[in-house]
Amino acid sequence: MGAITGKEYIKRLNQLNNEIWYDGEKIVGPLSEHPAFKGLIQSKAALYDLQHDPKIKDEMTFISPVSGETIGLSYLQPKTKEDLIRRRKMTEHWARYSGGIMGRSPDYLNTVLTSFASSVTYLKNKENCFPHNLQTFYEYARENDLSFTHTFISPQVNRSQVYIENSVEPIAAKVIGKNDEGIIIKGARLLATQGGLTDEVLVFSVGKLLFNEDEAFAFSIPSNTKGIKFICRDTFIGGPSSFNHPLSSRFEEMDSIVVFDNVLVPWNRVFYYNNVEVSEEFPMESPFLPFAKHQVLVRQIVKTEFVLGIAELLIETINISGYQHIQEKLSEIIIGLETMKALLEKAENNAKLDEWGYMRPEIYPLLVAGNIFPKIYPRFTEIIQLIGASGMITLPTEKAFHSSIRKDLDSYLKGATKTAEERVKIFRLAWDLTMSSFGTRQTQYERYFFGDPIRLASDLYKKYPKDEYVKAIRNFLNLN
Ligand SMILES: Cc1cc2nc3c(=O)[nH]c(=O)nc-3n(C[C@H](O)[C@H](O)[C@H](O)COP(=O)(O)OP(=O)(O)OC[C@H]3O[C@@H](n4cnc5c(N)ncnc54)[C@H](O)[C@@H]3O)c2cc1C
């Protein structure tokens, strides 16, 4: 099949007939026509079409080593630094389509699966592990350009340090049995962005599992597997108009809880199960962090450029560039942007082949970027709000501009360098990015989607090699 088009993506998704619950009702009819998903599905279709755009096709695809077909570059296992740069360009093309707003353009999870498949050898000869299944599934996904959602964490019931679930019915998804056909999973996982809107659900366990052997598993199953339910949150789409809601009307990705109601995961889809040690170590031994964080950093750079562009347009519109505090605020965004770009270059320049022959970007600059962005992104949104002031509130609708009140709007809402309509368009974009329910989710997403920032900082501290610096001080002080 090879790299799919937007049309093929939509057709396949509609045919799946996934069990999705929205506002207390089970969705019936084609997903691509539902008002809560239509905008996102069209945007994703446009991303898939970029794989066939003659101008960039070569940068979005490569030739399959097995079928000779043209397949998506997000599935490329990098073996050279040039491969890493090819991967970067592919992510940039997809990220630029939404200004980096879509956290789950298909390359994110395609990269995650690719990273796991690049370390299948680690699973060899380990208890309850099936490296062949992971390798075969990766190739199947790559050749058919499958789309993914993922659930890595359990429900937020009790996050105290030592919590052992003792409810009668499982809450966190668990292996409750196995038979000739596969393992049986019951319970829930959260939070799956685009849950129900993809071909497959990729399920891995991450973090410390303590004694919960039955929660230590990894597999992927089609989203329409019997017993899987996706329970959506409320939509953050303000409405269908791209004038009124320039971002939410197109890029609202939806998040859902995934419920496994006695779901049978066939053996050929199980990568491992009931193995706490492998569950804890495999994601860390694999190139998951370097590959996934490389994709994330590229997208976040594009998003920072988008934020900078909006901030500067606001400034131009109401002519406030002469104030020093405005300049200082913009320079904060520029410092963020240049820092992230420098970290990306360092990670790529210092990339090294791993033990399995894949080119891993250097991890420390990526971990640092992963610690910086959750802090600077909320500040970016604050900066936009501080620059925009009341302009973030005086936002008449598209309809108002086509009503008899237009003359007043044209006169009282114009900007120093813009017509009223242009001014409102720009401020509406700034508002949708930082103040609408959609914009607030964006901030929460950048804070949390790759894990709790507190624990990310702790991981960086623990991983970072410090001995050399301690030794230098000991020498300086003539200590033993
Ligand atoms: C918009 C959005 C989209 C997401 N999409 C996905 C997705 O598609 N797939 C997916 O798998 N996940 C997704 N996530 C979930 C994300 O991985 C988690 O939010 C993140 O790992 C933090 O876990 P938590 O939300 O359960 O927070 P919790 O772990 O419940 O933390 C709550 C608070 O307690 C503190 N805390 C808890 N435990 C500790 C500890 N051990 N040490 C120190 N402090 C602690 C935290 O610092 C935090 O302040 C998404 C999250 C968001 C916000």
Query: Ranges with pLDDT <50 over ≥5 residues?
Result: none
Indicate the mean pLDDT. Answer: 96
Question: How much β-strand is present in the residues?
Answer: 5-15%
Q: Which class do the helix and strand fractions yield?
A: alpha+beta
**Form type:** globular
Q: What value does the Rg take, in angstroms?
A: 24 Å
Which sheet architecture does the biggest sheet show?
Answer: 6 strands, mixed
Total strands: the figure is 14
Q: How are strands sequenced across the largest beta sheet?
A: 2-1-10-11-7-6
What small molecules does the structure contain? Answer: flavin-adenine dinucleotide
N- and C-termini, Cα separation = 65 Å
Helical run tally = 17
**Residue share in helix:** 40-55%
General description of the model:
This protein is α+β, with helices and mostly antiparallel strands. It contains 17 helices and 14 strands. It has helices at residues 6-16, 38-50, 57-60, 81-98, 107-117, 131-144, 248-251, 276-285, 288-318, 324-349, 363-388, 398-401, 406-412, 420-434, 437-448, 453-463, 467-476; strands at 20-22, 25-26, 61-63, 70-72, 148-151, 174-178, 182-193, 200-204, 217-222, 228-232, 255-266, 270-273, 352-353, 359-360. A hairpin with a 5-residue loop joins strand 13 and strand 14 (359-360). Helix 9 (288-318) runs antiparallel to helix 10 (324-349). The model has no long low-confidence stretch (mean pLDDT 96). The structure holds flavin-adenine dinucleotide. Residues 150-153, 156, 159, 191-193, 255, 441, 444-445, 448-449, 451-452, 454-455 line the site of flavin-adenine dinucleotide.
